[in-house]
Sequence to fold (224 residues):
Amino acid sequence: MIDWSDIRTVLLDMDGTLLDLHYDNHFWLTHLPLRYAEIRGLPAEEARSEVLSIVQAEKGSLNWYCLDYWSERLGFDVGALKHEVSDRIAFRADAPEFLRALKHSHCRTLIVTNAHETGLDLKLARTGLDRWVDGILTSHQFGLPKERPDFWAALHRHEPFDPQQTLLVDDNTAAIRSADDFGIRHLLAIRSPDSLEPTRTITDWPAVDRFREILPIQAPVAVQ
Fold:
């Protein structure tokens, strides 16, 4: 599926790609609405409907991912609530092995995420992801979500890479589409970002369930 000899840079999403999206789905769909109900003194279903309506209205924007925005909008510290269910933060299957293989390959590996810094710091503390990659960049640094093609242009200016020799792995098909529009050649989608949800059908790009499907990674033979 992937010709690793043609890859020099690997851009990895975090949530739903390296980490199980179950944590985030549980937080936004279950935990936050319950805590909102407690704080506002509302019935659980009314609170859930209200919170999900507010959140869905920002889908695809940078606000969707910004914990500071949601803290201000909802009137309490959303970032602090994320710690309450942090025991659910976990790697996706095979992700540690994949990261280890990349670490010992010829590729420069970067995490490129829409996650807000507060949530990112929590996940790094729980997983140690940062020790396996060459850098971590967030969309908040550029003021643009990955769903926007100009995000990738901004990333390229900050961290030059050859789009023709770059692989992006992401569960967010809107982000993959924008990367495709920018010109990143090698694109790989994740079919099962949430371990408790059904596997998705993806037809527009190559896709995998497990990273073992694209191992091993081998460095190219040096030109003599």
Observations:
- The chain has a mean pLDDT of 94.
- The radius of gyration is 18 Å.
